[in-house]
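User: Predict Transposase, IS605 OrfB family, central region's structure from this.
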Amino acid sequence: MNKGAGKIIDYCISNDIGTLVVGYNKTFQRGTDMGKRNNQNFANIPYGQLCSKLEYLCELNGIVFVKQEESYISKASF
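Assistant:
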């Protein structure tokens, strides 16, 4: 998680990105149907931990961190 979050922050810094927007939905990992093996891999991703590390690193580097709730996005757009 640390390495992945660090790479994202490094990318933001090198490309002069001042705002990082992260989409979040509490139940996005539930009810997936990608096959048994892919479901096992996908459901074990600690997405909340990644978001908290990104938020901390953004604060240290002066990047605005925005957590966007997006549970109804797919229903609103066609």
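The chain is about 50% helix and 15% strand.
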